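Student: Please help interpret what follows.
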Amino acid sequence: MALLPVAESAVPLYWRRSFPGRTEQARVARGFVACLLAGCPFLDDVLLAVGELVVNALRHTKSGQDGGSFTVEVLRGCGGVVLGVADQGGPCEPVVADAGELDECGRGLLTVSRTAARWGWYGDESGRKVTVAFAGEWVA
């Protein structure tokens, strides 16, 4: 049986990689995603989201504790990019907060929510995944 040719953009691509739960791994995770999405016109927004989600996983969940880890998932296709960061859970739910003018932190998810087409999360104190979607096409 002959296979029909399929346009490259019609075939979604999926990657998944786990990282040790250490702060320097945020840079490594951004590099991983940057290599996968070279030429993406909204790469800066995607990399900002990777950084924010990884830092949140390390700061607010068990992923940042000794022996912890987190996983980054990237789906390219279907009109954009979907990014997911899975952590090992923690006591707090991810929320968009209104940080005060002088607050040094608390703007990460707000920034991500304003640059992405949509975002959400699911899970509980034993593990969760935060997912961010970016709309747009590009020629690789």
